[in-house]
Amino acid sequence: MEILKVIFASLFSSAILFFIAKLIGHKQVAQLEFFDYITGITIGSIAAELATTLDDPWWKPTIAMIVFGLVTVVLSIVTRKFPKSRKFVNGTPTIVMNDGKLYRDNMKKAKLELSEFLLLCRQAGYFNLNDIQTAVFEYNGMLSILPVSKKRPLNPEDMKLTTKSEHIGTEIIMDGRVMGDNLKRKGLNDEWLQKEIKNQGYKSAKEIFLGICYDENNLTLFPVKN
Fold it and tell me: In terms of pLDDT, which residue wins out, 178 or 161?
C-alpha cells in the first residue's frame, strides 16, 4: 500500500510541475524540453532528500525517482510515435514579428516581454529591428530570426557561382593518437600522414593535439600547447 502511495504521489506531483512549467513559459526552460526540465528539477530534489533524510526509509525516494524516470521515458516514446502530442507536451513555435509588425498577443501567449525580445534580438546580432523579416520564438526558449533579404549574407548562389560540395572534417589525430579507422575511411594510410606531418614542421603525431582532414585531403594540424 505504501508503494502505491509513493507512485501516485510521484505521478500527481509530475503533473502539477508540468502545469506550473507551462504557466511559466518557454523562457524558463532555456533549451530543455518541458518534461526534461521538470524531471531534472524533481529527481535532483528527491536525490537530495534521499541523501540528507537518513531516518526515513530509503526505498520511498528511490521509487519516486524511478517513477519520474519511467514517466519521462514513456512520454518521449509517445511524442516520438505520435508527433501531434508534441504540441501539447512541448508547445509550438510562435511568430512574434513578421514583415515589420510585432504581434503583441503572440508575445503574451509565449510569456515573452518586450524587453526580453529585444535582448534576444541583440544576442542574435540584430540591434536594428528593421533588419528582421520574421522572428519566431521557439518552444525551447530560443529566438529564430530570418533577416530581410537585403541584410542577409551574400552567398555564391546570389553571384551565380558554381561551388563544390563540402563535407564534415574527419578527425585523424586526437591528443597525439592516430585514429586508424578514420584514416582508412578517408582512403589514406600512415605513410601519407607522416609525410603531411613533416611537411607542416612536426616530427610525429605525438606533437599534435588535434588533426582534422577536410575535403581534397587537406590536413589541418593543431599542435599541443602546454
Answer: 178
